[in-house]
Amino acid sequence: MNVDISNMWGAVSLPELLGREKAVFDAHLRLVSHQQGGEDFHGWLSRPDSVQARLIHGIRRAADQVLDDSDVLVVCGACPTAAAARAAIEAYHGRERNLLHTPQVFFVGGSLSSRQWLELSQLLEERSYCLLLVSPHGEEPGDNITARGLRWLMERKYGGQAKNRIFVSTLVGSPLHRMGQEEGYELFPMPRELGGSSTIFTAGALLPMAVAGIDPLAVLEGAVETVAATDVRAFENPAWLYAAARAVLAGKGRNREILCCFDHSLEALGRWWRQLTWLWQTGRGQPIAPETALLPGDLPVLDAMAAEGEGAIFETVLRFAPIAKKVPVEMDWKDYDGLGFLSGRNWEDVEQGLTQALFETHSMAGVPLVELDAGDLTAEALGAMFRLLELSNALSALLCGYPPLERPGDRVRQAAIAGLRQAET
After folding, report:
1. Which one of 360, 365, 371, 388 is at 20 to 30 Å from 381 when CA atoms are compared?
2. Is residue 291 situated within a structural domain?
3. Percent of the chain at pLDDT above 90?
4. Model-level pTM?
């Protein structure tokens, strides 16, 4: 991935950026120096290179089973691992993949909407399906209530064979893990180290991707290559550059990051990025709050924010290389919309023109921009991108003054469950 910060110099000086180099070095050293086996070991940093061949074989075998037996894979989980799988699938195949390909992959959990549950139940009524439960701690009410309903539907439909259609990815020793052991579900344990249950490089994310036709080994190969590329201890390292840029801007009060995407299939990637950033910022400091803008539809809002001199934002433009097939702008002889001058051009030309205009006008208005170019959209590129973004996010958290990847207690969830139990008694 190429990181271009040339459009942020109006808000940040070069000495300010270079002044953070020692802090980035210390943050990187802090992440990689923990010893394996300790509670603070960040094994996910080397995770792409340490995934065992047996695990890849298990993922492929489970994916083949879903492909042979089912029309649908239902992934139940609201954790970053499930969000990463959805982000990867939609980025690779597009948001409408389920309308064009089988087996379909649906992501549920994290919701207590009765309407959504009834819609899902109706959708699964006439289809064969498998279930993947993804939850690090197995304690999330939305996930668990949805999982209860899905398991009941499966037992009613498949009887004793339902257990052969259920897969579980969780931490060893969690309530979900104990249930999987007792019920005979196939288990894919999550790594226990800090941040290990949030990475895409686990079976909980790689299995749905494999079902969707994304080779898990190719994803890991792309990530492994990026491990070496992001071990460079200088600003030639794109993870360093992006992390330092975010931290410097947050330190100047610009802690609202707008992730701009012309390809709307990257919306799920934006949700994963927001979730991971929030999860990994658990201390005190200047938090970074990512949002997603889908362009060109959200351009009027961004233009208004820039024109009003909104000083709390910076923009990150995420792009992949254009696809080989070009889509022309259609000709309209009456030219009602006044865009006749674009006839003969293609949609990519228009996107590039709008991107350049965004850089120029918003830079002049004082809004700093960072460009992330992930190159050709391949399985290897997906692995490389997620590896770089995970490392960069961890570095950003440390640079902004947060402890590395600690999981805060969920006070709202705990209070709600306590209230329900008290009402029941």
Report:
1. 360
2. yes
3. 65
4. 0.91
